């Protein structure tokens, strides 16, 4: 099928009616932003406020760092006193390494890249891939006290909150 542009070839006005039409800015309702408060008001969105913005103090700031960066720079961190060199590799706290880590609500270690050294990393949260990479090389991912609760602890808390078995009364038996 031919395009409309090709079908209009040879036509003097290309579907615009008589030669008087499509002359000036009046054909398109004025120049630029003319009429934005009158006849072209439909181009604006509805007025008023929309949605909800959480207060900043209610939002958690979670800083992230890749486990590969921790691994690559572990020797530098040890030289600066931010990490300790152990027999198996390095022991470090992610809060000490991440800029503004102590002011943040949480520091999370992500599992991007590769790990070559044994790392003992302490952080508030770990991604599953980060834990896998750290433990593959004989390291350990330690969740800090400020961090997430382990799933085992959550289950034990739920068990405590459940009421104990109640013996049926004489009416029910």
TrEMBL record:
Domain Large ribosomal subunit protein uL15/eL18 span(s) in chain numbering: 66-141
Keywords, in A-Z order: Ribonucleoprotein, Ribosomal protein, RNA-binding, rRNA-binding
GO CC annotation: ribonucleoprotein complex; ribosome
Record InterPro entries: Rbsml_uL15_N, Ribosomal_uL15, Ribosomal_uL15/eL18, Ribosomal_uL15/eL18_sf, Ribosomal_uL15_CS
Residue spans of biased composition, Acidic residues class: 150-173
Top-level taxon in the UniProt lineage: Archaea
Pfam families, A to Z: Ribosomal_L27A (PF00828)
Bias (Basic residues) ranges: 1-30
Annotated region described as Disordered, given as residue ranges: 1-53, 137-173
GO molecular function: rRNA binding
UniProt cross-references to Gene3D superfamilies, sorted A to Z: 3.100.10.10, 4.10.990.10
Example GO biological process: translation
Family: Belongs to the universal ribosomal protein uL15 family.
Its biological purpose: Binds to the 23S rRNA.
Subunit text: Part of the 50S ribosomal subunit.
Protein name per Swiss-Prot or TrEMBL: Large ribosomal subunit protein uL15
Species of origin: Halalkalicoccus tibetensis
Lineage start: Archaea, Methanobacteriati, Methanobacteriota, Stenosarchaea group, Halobacteria
Gene of this entry: rpl15
């Amino acid at each position: 099928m031919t395009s409309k542009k090709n079908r209009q070839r040879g036509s003097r006005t290309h579907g615009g009616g008589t030669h008087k039409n499509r002359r000036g800015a009046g054909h398109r309702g004025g120049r630029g932003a003319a009429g934005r408060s009158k006849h072209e008001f439909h181009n604006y969105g509805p007025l008023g406020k929309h949605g909800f913005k959480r207060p900043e103090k209610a939002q958690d700031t979670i800083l992230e760092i890749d486990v590969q960066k921790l691994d690559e720079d572990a020797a530098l961190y040890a030289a600066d006193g931010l990490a300790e060199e152990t027999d198996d590799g390095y022991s470090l706290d992610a809060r000490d390494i991440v800029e503004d880590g102590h002011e943040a609500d949480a520091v999370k270690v992500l599992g991007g890249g590769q790990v070559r050294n044994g790392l003992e990393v302490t952080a508030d949260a770990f991604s599953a891939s980060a834990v896998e990479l750290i433990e593959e090389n004989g390291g350990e991912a330690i969740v800090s006290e400020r961090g997430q609760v382990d799933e085992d602890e959550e289950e034990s808390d739920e068990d405590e909150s459940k009421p104990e078995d109640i013996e049926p009364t004489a009416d029910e038996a």
